[in-house]
Design brief:
single chain; 306 residues; alpha/beta; five-stranded parallel sheet; 15 helices
Length: 306
C-alpha cells in the first residue's frame, strides 16, 4: 500500500475505561472464549477476531479485555503488538520479544539489528510451555504467507494460549484461522450521547447542560453509532458553552473541523484505500448525490455501467 495517509497513531494496551459504554455483553463473551477450557486437540493456541468498522471501538474493547483481572490471572504472559496496514514481520517479532522479556529501551535497541530467524527462535524459547495471550491490533494481512514464521512460533505456547485480533476485514479473520469471529455493531444514539456528554459537559453547570442537551442529542445522531466520532466531537464541544455554538456544530461545522478530519476521517480512509480500484470508482460516484438523498439501487447500478 503506497504512502498516501498519515500513519495512524500506534496503539498500546493502556486505556481509561471510564468512558467506555455499550460493550459489556460482547466483552463478557470474548473473555469467555479466552478463558474457557483448553484448545482443540492438536492445537495449543486458538484465535479470536474482533471485526468492525474503523472507529467502532475494536481496539478499546481489546484493551479492556487485556486489562481485565480474570484475564491477567489466567495467562502466564500477555503481549500487546500493534500491527497496522503495512505488516512488518520483523517489527512485530521485536515487539513480541520486548513484551515477553520486559526489555527496557536500551535492551530493545540491542535486538534491532537481529535477523528475523534469530528473532523467531528467541520468541519460541520465550513462550515455550507458557500459556500466553497475544493481542494483534489493527491487522490487515491478505493471505497466510504474510504471517511467515510468526505463525509457527505461536504454536510453541502451552495449551490454552490465545491470540486476540482486531481488524476491519473478515478475510483477516479467515487468514488467522479464527475459531471465533465477533462482529462489533454500531452503538445506539443514546450511547453515543452518553460518550459525548461525559466529555463535553463535564465542566459545565446543570443549567448549561440542560440548555445544550437538545442540540447534543441531534449531534449524537450524526455520530452514526461510532464511539470514536462521539469521543472526538465531545472533546471539541467541551470548549463551546453556548447553544448557538453547539447549533453551529450541528448545522455547519461538523465535518469541516480539523480535529474530526484528523481523528475520524484519516482512520476511516484506510478502509477506502484498501478497496479494489473498480469499487473505489463506484464509491466516489456516490459523492454526486446530496447528503441523505434517496435513490433507487437500480438507477445507481445503471449509472455505474454507463
Amino acid at each position: 500500500m503506497p504512502n498516501r495517509l498519515p500513519k495512524r497513531k500506534e496503539s498500546t494496551s493502556f486505556i481509561d475505561g471510564s468512558s467506555f459504554v455499550g460493550r459489556d455483553e460482547v466483552k463478557k463473551q470474548i473473555i469467555g472464549h479466552l478463558l474457557c477450557g483448553s484448545s482443540k486437540e492438536g492445537e495449543n493456541c486458538q484465535t479470536i477476531s474482533i471485526v468492525g468498522l474503523g472507529g467502532i471501538g475494536k481496539t478499546a474493547l481489546a484493551q479492556l479485555i487485556y486489562n481485565d483481572e480474570d484475564v491477567k490471572q489466567h495467562f502466564t504472559s500477555r503481549i500487546w503488538a500493534y500491527v497496522s496496514d503495512i505488516f512488518d514481520e520483523s517489527k512485530v517479532a521485536k515487539t513480541i520479544i520486548a513484551e515477553l522479556e520486559g526489555l527496557d529501551k536500551i535492551a530493545a535497541l540491542q535486538i534491532e539489528s537481529l535477523p528475523l530467524n534469530t528473532l523467531l527462535e528467541r520468541i519460541c524459547k520465550s513462550i515455550e510451555g507458557k500459556k500466553y495471550l497475544l493481542v494483534l491490533d489493527d491487522v490487515w494481512i491478505e493471505n497466510d504467507e504474510d504471517l511467515g514464521g510468526l505463525k509457527v512460533t505461536f504454536k510453541r505456547g502451552a495449551a490454552g494460549s490465545r491470540i486476540l485480533v482486531t481488524t476491519r476485514k473478515d478475510t483477516v479473520s479467515r487468514v488467522m484461522g479464527s475459531s471465533h469471529t465477533i462482529h462489533l455493531e454500531t452503538l445506539s444514539q443514546d450511547l453515543c450521547w452518553s460518550i459525548l456528554k461525559k466529555i463535553a459537559l463535564r465542566e459545565m453547570d446543570q443549567k448549561t447542560c440542560e440548555d445544550l442537551t437538545p442540540a447534543g442529542l441531534r449531534i449524537a445522531e450524526k455520530c452514526k453509532g461510532l464511539p470514536l466520532v462521539a469521543k472526538t466531537l465531545g472533546g471539541h464541544l467541551q470548549f463551546k458553552t453556548t447553544r448557538k455554538e453547539w447549533e453551529d456544530v450541528l448545522h455547519s461545522e461538523l465535518w469541516r473541523m480539523d480535529v474530526v478530519h484528523k481523528d475520524v476521517f484519516v482512520p476511516l480512509l484506510l478502509s477506502y484505500y484498501d478497496l479494489p480500484s473498480p469499487v473505489k470508482q463506484c464509491f466516489k460516484y456516490c459523492a454526486s448525490f446530496t447528503k441523505d438523498s434517496a435513490y433507487f439501487t437500480c438507477h445507481l447500478i445503471a449509472k455505474w455501467k454507463a
